[in-house]
Amino acid sequence: MQDTICAIATAVGSGAISIIRVSGNDAILIVNKIFKGKDLTKVETHTIHYGKIMDGNKEIDEVLVSIMKAPKTYTMEDVVEINTHGGIAPTNKVLELLLKNGCRLAEAGEFTKRAYLNGRIDLTQAEAVMDKINAKTDMQNELATNSLNGKVSDLINNLREDMIQIISNINVNIDYPEYDDVDIITNDIMVPKIINLKKRIEEILKESKNGKIIKEGIKTAIIGSPNVGKSSLLNELLQEDKAIVTDIAGTTRDIVEGQISINGILLNIIDTAGIRNTDDKVEAIGVEKSIKVMNDADLVLFMLNNNEELSNDNKKLLNELNNRNYIIIVNKIDLVKKIDISKLNKDNIIEMSIKEKKGINELKNKIIELFNLDNIETKDPTYISNVRSIGILELCLNKVKDIEDGLNNNYPIDMLELDIKAIWEELGKINGTTYEEELLDEMFKRFCLGK
């Protein structure tokens, strides 16, 4: 991290302003070479200066240059931000001059990576930066803010602090058995400590489901036979003509997607091809995609036609939904009723007429109830929502359960101490107290260049 990096920090394209960010030991010196105005090497930190960017004697643009000296900067290095006019040409020219004068083009996420490696933020906070950029709802923004402020880090740090007390006591017992003023850690003492640790990890994982819903939304698949009203439902929910609607069965041959927000939670809705046996090769591919979407969805909206008897194909598909989050929508209630739904789960049924705009609000309320969205909305959203962190916690939970079994089988404490320490180190990977270089490279390459 000895070199000085630069990148465009704003979206590429025409706009009022573009910002080129520079960070590193030589950031101020390099920018000063191409800046006509005050001597930037002599100005105070956290000040803004008017001037011009020059390529030799040629003026490139009028700019405002922000000078921020280490360590009170985003990367904890010297940082300079050049505010240019927002055209593509002047922005790229300024970047080109920086590269010619000693900067290196930053890798994706390298500014945030340097903030992490220099100790300004931990790994959960670094991940929250990208969540903040990608936030589409107030709830997503609040979730990212709490993580960025260190609230998620505190959950993990508190676990590790309690574990280090256990590890320290065990080590003292082993290395200094003659000390009378240190508690002797026996299996009887350890069991409640491990049970408490298990409960706390289980609670964090339980809450993480809410975090995942806030961050990623609810992947919702609209499933059913051809011409049952799937595309009409999508259009009605989105309040736009997203999908083509006709009376011809099999019109939808590929998935059509859209998003709505319910109680601050995104519903990622996918309209699928009608599921039926067909000799049409293109339609058959659509049906195959529909089955895959249904299997991957967090919520299945299974649509039936009030004016048709329940087919064997639909009965078979309904049986596959038993262990899933699903809502049965009986559409076209404005027509004569021919379907028998007496044997279906009445708690999961919404009767609807999209044509007459009946049942849409009832559907939204059922989704709120099914995913407990009212509770998520009213609680302070301090959840672990990152898939990487959740995976580590699940691994740690399994190891804690193994230790609990070992204690119940009277395994010696000194044998279990290594397992406890392994969990402590594994938890450190969540906030980056312990890390592997490959992990950092993989994580930060998902960031945009200027961040």
What does this protein structure show overall?
The protein is an alpha/beta fold and 451 residues long. The chain folds into 3 domains: 5-122, Gyrase A, domain 2 (2-Layer Sandwich), CATH 3.30.1360; 151-213 and 383-433, Up-down Bundle (Four Helix Bundle (Hemerythrin (Met), subunit A)); 215-377, Rossmann fold, CATH 3.40.50. It is built from 15 helices and 13 strands. Helix 4 (123-134) packs antiparallel against helix 5. The radius of gyration is 29 Å and the shape is flat.
Can you lay out the helices and strands and say which pair or pack?
Layout: E1 5-8, E2 17-23, H1 27-34, E3 35-36, E4 47-55, E5 58-68, E6 79-85, H2 88-100, E7 104-105, H3 110-117, H4 123-134, H5 138-148, H6 151-175, H7 187-216, E8 218-224, H8 230-238, E9 256-262, E10 265-271, H9 281-296, E11 299-305, H10 312-319, E12 326-331, E13 349-351, H11 360-370, H12 373-378, H13 387-408, H14 413-431, H15 437-444
Parallel strand pairs: 1-7, 8-10, 8-11, 11-12, 12-13
Antiparallel strand pairs: 1-2, 2-6, 3-4, 4-5, 5-6, 9-10
Helix pairs in contact: 4-5, 6-7, 6-14, 7-13, 13-14
* Main CATH class of the largest domain: Alpha Beta
Please provide the ordered H/E string of secondary-structure elements.
EEHEEEEHEHHHHHEHEEHEHEEHHHHH
Question: N-to-C terminal Cα separation, in Å?
Answer: 16 Å
CATH H-tier superfamily of the largest domain: P-loop containing nucleotide triphosphate hydrolases
Gyration radius, in Å: 29 Å
* Total DSSP helices: 15
How many E-type strands? 13
